[in-house]
Amino acid sequence: MAGCDPVIDVAGANFPAWLLCLLVGAMLAGIMRPVLIFARLDPYLGPAPLIYASLAIMFALIAWLMFFNRI
Known about the structure:
Elements: E1 7-10, E2 13-16, H1 17-38, H2 48-68
Antiparallel strand pairs: 1-2
């Protein structure tokens, strides 16, 4: 079943699509931190590691659905 995973070709090397989605999710979660601080919402969110890890997972899953959805 591992052969059914979408693969992305980057400079001749093959990477699984989930790796790209993970990087996109982490970058977008990192971008959201200054936005939430600017909006003064950061103190009200709760434990920061849990919140930003959840944001990274959410953005990664959204990227997966946007770019690799086969439906």
